[in-house]
Amino acid sequence: MADKYWFNIETHQVEEGRQSDWTKLMGPYTTREEAAQALEKARRRNQDWDAQDEAQS
To answer: I need a labelling partner for 44 at 20 to 30 A (CA). Which of 22, 36, 38, 55 fits?
Structure first.
């Protein structure tokens, strides 16, 4: 998977190809830019899910 990008949650760096242990990675992503935004994307999804949970309550 050298043609994919990963976000390392420990170092906060984008890796080209899976270089670190999978437990420290988010991905894969098709572009470096997508990988760099991994934490922001996860934060937005969590907010959306929380809002859906509150609406269902």
So the answer is: 22
- Cα 28 from chain centroid? 8
Of 36, 25, 10, which is closest to residue 1 (Cα–Cα)?
25
**Ramachandran angles phi, psi of 20, nearest 5°:** -110, 170
- The model carries a pTM of 0.80
pLDDT at 54: 86
Residue 22 DSSP label = G
Can you give the pLDDT at residue 53? 84
Two tokens at 27?
């991905």
| Residue 21 main-chain phi, psi, to 5 deg | -60, 140
Is residue 51 within 8 A of residue 34, CB to CB? The reply is no
